[in-house]
Design goal:
The protein is an alpha+beta fold. It has one domain. About 25% of the residues lie in helices and about 40% in strands. The longest helix has 10 residues.
């Protein structure tokens, strides 16, 4: 079965790479394999952001044996601020 990623869009500043807005979910999903192919062709726009569930938990829970380090990946399409102006 193909791993599906939630798809988001974000506007970023080209000079720093900082996101100008909060990523907006498009409501679509994309296959991880297809997104990686797109990333190889155009890494500036097609990116994957990986978030660790454990890193988001308060410290007292992070060492708990019941917590497994779960990594959640999201497909992010980056539109650069200088592209938005055109």
């Amino acid at each position: 079965m193909t791993n599906q990623l939630d798809h988001y869009r974000v506007v970023a500043e080209r000079e720093t790479g900082f996101w100008i807005n909060v990523p907006v979910r498009t409501g679509n999903t994309v296959s991880r394999e297809e997104w990686l192919r797109l990333h190889q062709a155009d890494p500036d726009h097609f990116q994957i952001v990986a978030l660790s569930l454990e890193a988001q938990l308060p410290h007292q829970y992070s060492n708990n044996d019941l917590v497994v380090d779960v990594v959640i990946e999201h497909a992010i399409f980056v539109m650069w601020s200088d592209e938005v102006l055109h």
